[in-house]
Design goal:
Elements lengths: L6 H9 L11 H7 L8 H13 L3 H13 L5 H13 L3 H14 L4 H14 L1 H8 L11 E3 L11 H12 L3 H9 L3 E7 L14 E4 L2 E12 L4 E6 L2 H19 L7 H12 L3 H6 L10 H14 L4 H9 L1 H10 L5
Parallel strand pairs: 1-2, 2-4
Antiparallel strand pairs: 3-4, 4-5
Helix pairs in contact: 1-5, 3-4, 4-5, 5-6, 6-7, 7-8, 9-11, 11-14, 12-16, 14-15
Amino acid sequence: MLSIKVTSFRKIAIGFTAGLLTAVVPAAILLILGAAPAWADRDENYTDGVEAYNRGNFRMATQYLLDALKEGNSDAIVMLYLAHSYAAQGQYKLALPIYRNIRDSFSGSPEAAQAASCVLRLENPATFAAQKGQSQTATFYNRVKPLPPKKGHIAVGKATVATVQKTILGMPRAIYQLLDTAAVTVSIAPSAQDKLAANSNLKDAAILNGKEITVFENLMVTDKSKKVSKAKPFSSTEIKDAFLKKVGSAIEQCSGGLSRDPDFHAAYMLDKRDLAPAIEESLPFLAPPANQAEPEVCAYIIAGIAGGSDTATTCVSKNFPKTRAWLINKLRLQN
């Protein structure tokens, strides 16, 4: 019985949406988990619960397993099946406390080891992906890849890859999960010339193309005297902030164009009305015709929540409080 099949949960856990882990497990369930009286048919309910789980009837499995707990069968395996049943239904706010209970109360058991893995997956999917070394198509963390250099340029350094990976690991769980679910990928190129046109003069350290974020390790600067380009490395801070800005843009797009939501627009207009002239002048995308102002504000706010700290990100986050609050609530980023 210890070799539980958790394929269904694993598939679901990779793509579960943000913000479902905040509620505290109801007191009634905690009482059930601590129940001790024994009844003759407790094993029957457990067996029926396992059979329902293996048939994919997770709601029925949950009921049988709860009945088994009520009847005194508080074995780790019963609780593990119950947690898996909740997770398979997307009820992560109920599954997570039970996984923690198993991990902490049955230390050293196979059930505790499996529960600990599930806790890590739910609490921090990026760290889980990094530790487990899942396939490159499995998770956002593992969809980061360096691109080969062109024109004799030096290959991407390990430090740049590490900067991007560390930034991903530092993201709030909800933001990571949105990127993971949307199948966003990350490429790291030596420079814009290795990804775009050979004569590209792009000054930014990252771009977004569809669902692909590309980070550039170097800015190519033309030496006018010699008429050749030479690499000027972006700092790790510049790479982090540029990457997170594109993370914000990716989420804005992959979430259906958040900046086009009427409620977003209403919050944005209230914030913009209160902007001091000096602040408005410091943000070039707010200048007329300002066609991209709302998507830019959306991207900067998300970048700030994800850990960005450059001047523009900090300025937008501070001066668009109503818009920021709307985004946090809409995307459940407070969780």
